[in-house]
Amino acid sequence: MSLAAEPSPASPTSAPSPGAPASVSPFAEIPRADWERLAGQTPLPLTEEEVGRLQGLGDRLDLREVDAVYRPISRLLNIQVGAAQALRRSRGDFLHQPQQATPYVIAVAGSVAVGKSTTARVLRELMARWPDTPRVQLVTTDGFLLPNAELERRGIMHRKGFPESYDRRRLLRFVSDVKAGMTRVEAPVYSHLTYDIVTEERVVVEQPDVLILEGLNVLQPAHPRRDGRVGVAVSDFFDFSVYVDARPEDVRRWYVDRFLALRRTAFTDPRSYFRRYAELDDEQARETALSIWQRINGPNLSENVLPTRGRADLVLRKDGRHRVDSVLLRKV
Fold this sequence. Notes:
alpha/beta
């Protein structure tokens, strides 16, 4: 198996420091063919029906992609979880204190329309098949967006999805409570149909073996406080993180294609926040989608989401067909 070092994904165009090797990077790149050969180490295949159920709108996910890419990831995560459990036991023995078992927290980050939700669902399904992690829960950070009324009050409705549009304190408290081993922790629920928080619903997390937290900005670092001290970030509680990556121009195209598909499906629902877009013709819908991308999703990707790519433990690089063509794994 070849592990080719490559420039850090956080700054692919940055020049190396004088005298430094040209290929210094915390990541090792594993070509798809080499990564695919690792799938033989896991006996946890999915069926075509299961893959179809997990696939998100616009994603081109099939059984071969799951076998080639996601089965090896599930085995890698299984190894990581086992190592964390062994470390906890060893630390307890050293301290002569019992160590409470806490959920192993995995983050899945990436742009709108890149396929991170599908990645999170597939990983949840595969991780739950390992005998030592049967209880796996998935929570999306969409539920921690501020309600539309609050976004309007603050004048940042046009910044929805940007870091400042989230209730970051509530999200931090949620992840902290889960990681502390609390028996029951609740998370708010978001509706993509009404484009707002569903106030009467909650997701209940009850001490799972693994919690997968999926969202745009989950890998954001802590920001300095007014007193100069550095605060705590949600990412400080992660045990492992995955970033789903693709060229911005491909992601933009996938976003537009998804918008056109939603115009013919979800947008036609009278309850939909985007009901007004259902009557647009193809050209108008395409122009509208591109305008939204250029004003909101594109800037959020370049300013906030993409800069966090280098903080991930594993990066899935997709080609223009939504197919993972290489894996970047952080060196141990």
